[in-house]
UniProtKB/TrEMBL annotation:
Keywords: Hydrolase. Pfam families: Glyco_hydro_88 (PF07470). InterPro entries: 6-hairpin_glycosidase_sf (IPR008928), 6hp_glycosidase-like_sf (IPR012341), Glyco_hydro_88 (IPR010905), PolySaccharide_Degr_Enz (IPR052043). It comes from Parabacteroides hominis. It comes from the Bacteria. This is Glycoside hydrolase family 88 protein. GO terms for molecular function: hydrolase activity.
Amino acid sequence: MKTKYFIPIIFLLLFTRCSTNSDTDLKNFPEGYTPEEVGTRISKRFISGKHMLHKKNGKDGIHYAEVCTWYGALKYAVAADDTALIKQLQNKFEPLFTTEADYQPRMIHVDLNMFGCLPLEFYQITKDKRYYDMGIPYADTQWQVPDTATTEEKDWVRKGFSWQTRLWIDDMFMITIIQSQAYKATGKREYIDRAAREMVMYLNELQHPNGLFYHAPDVPYYWGRGNGWMAAGMTELLRYLPKDNQDRPRILEGYRLMMKNLKDYQLPDGMWSQLVDDPACWAETSGTAMFTYAMITGVKQGWLDKKEYSPVARKAWMALIPYINEEGDVTEVCIGTNKKNDKQYYYDRRRIVGDYHGQAPILWCCFALIE
């Protein structure tokens, strides 16, 4: 009997071991490429960095790219159970209650309102109500039409959408991130349900049959980071959207269509281009990292087939890390880019180093890999 069953048992053990190795594409990385090493490097770089501010209507405030980086570092710290890093991130935030209170953005624009996602994430970790009181108005005012609203903005409200709607593709991260955080902090479905309705409208209006999005309806180019905002926005929303939400199937459909085509547009080295569908255009890190985050999360959440997509995500992650220099700054990040109906304009965009647009999505990948 022992002889009879020895070979099948050995075969089963070897098969199980091979299958396990195949299933750990997004778990085992060589030295220097682990999410723990990379996440710690980028987070420490952020702790020592200066604020990135922008000016809207004469008011300085924390730039959304810094908020995205701060949020990513905090999510990474929690996933890594790094209490010391959480405390450092809290200490960096504390002056926003006092000496840096003027850096709290005004609640007047989609790029500014997303700031609220950060104090709401802190609230969920610390249960300190100061964070809640700071963050929740940013979610509420995204749907509360101001007296100064234009006719177009009021029309969006009448249709049930945010008055901050613009049909710019980056909106679908800026809106979903704050509304999702408000839902998580309060448990009130209205926040995430309205964000889902908004996402469906953007998908219906802007997504093309190839799964991608023009930078704007009148600018027929598939800019990398712009598409990255859509990928990350759908991902963020699907992470928390209740299964019984009526819009979830449509959002999942749009997400999967995008991921399917991104798989085909990936460059041989694992990166994606500044113009996603143009392999002759230069490889850009911020968009690549956003796509990678979306794909890692999709594999782990079961939205994407693991066998098909985990090698794609792993290849992208491995390609990104060499773009991080010795100081912990991500290179080859496209500078902030307004729309322009000129293909050469996207080719010629300046590439910058250490910009928070590039630092943030690397951190998102880190926490997604270790969650």
